[in-house]
Amino acid sequence: MNVALVDEEAAAHYSGRPGVTIRRWAHEGRIKRYGSGRGNVRYNVFELPRKTVDPWTGEVDLGEPPPLPTGARAA
Predict the structure, then answer these.
(1) Domain ranges of the chain
(2) How much is the pTM?
């Protein structure tokens, strides 16, 4: 499995979603959180959906969110 750890700001930019969504996904178990404490948490960019932008229209596609683990419920 590939691992490339990024901070919350980079994870939010990569996925096109706000930081609160990245934190919620980690809380729900959709993605793994590495480290602890303010400013020390990192996320594996390979677990995140990539935001794509059409260069001609500017249309943004955020992709599907990571799946919930079996038996888990969304917040």
Answers:
(1) 5-61
(2) 0.87
